[in-house]
Design brief:
Elements lengths: L3 E3 L1 H9 L4 H7 L2 E4 H9 L7 H7 L4 E4 L4 H7 L5 H12 L4 E3 L3 H9 L4 E2 L1 H10 L6 H10 L6 H10 L2
Parallel strand pairs: 1-4, 2-3, 4-5
């Protein structure tokens, strides 16, 4: 089975546009570290998507504790707690893929040879596997729901799907 570990932003973003289910369709199971669970379910209680993610954690999202706390503490000097735990857990589990959106953790993950994809990439993958119909519409829907995506990324995305 493919080991896929997600940070908070892809989960939240996909919830905002009712596409969290595509993660289950793409990978059957997604793992999140405890810090991500706390961020989206505990601290995010009452925010859009928190109840959907909490429910998924009882089914196909697996919450796992990071063992290497020293690694997490070292990573937290440059990344937030959730990102730090995603990368540390990715190393521990020899993850096939990390779901990360922010530039800094993506650069760090790339530097230690961890593969990653962001929310835009997930939408593209879902479209390629015919799980969704109009990926450009979904990207615009994401932006309308407060999910920040650089204009250049949107333009590259549009060019890449033609």
């Amino acid at each position: 089975m493919t080991a896929v570990i997600s940070n908070a932003s892809p989960l939240i973003g996909l919830c905002k546009i009712d596409l969290l289910y595509v993660l289950k369709e793409l990978w059957r199971e997604v793992t999140i570290p405890e810090a991500v669970y706390r961020e989206v379910v505990v601290d995010g209680k009452g925010k859009p998507g928190s109840n959907v993610i909490e429910s998924a954690c009882k089914d196909w999202i697996k919450v796992v504790a990071v063992k290497n706390r020293h690694e997490v503490e070292a990573l937290q000097t440059i990344l937030d707690k959730g990102e730090s735990e995603v990368i540390a857990l990715g190393q521990e589990l020899k993850a096939d893929l990390l779901l990360l959106d922010n530039k800094e953790p993506r650069l760090f993950a790339k530097g230690i040879d961890l593969d990653m994809i962001g929310t835009v990439g997930i939408i593209r993958m879902a479209w390629e596997r015919e799980l969704i119909e109009d990926p450009v519409k979904q990207i615009h829907h994401l932006r309308l729901n407060g999910f920040w995506i650089h204009d250049e990324v949107v333009e590259q995305f549009k060019k890449g799907i033609k």
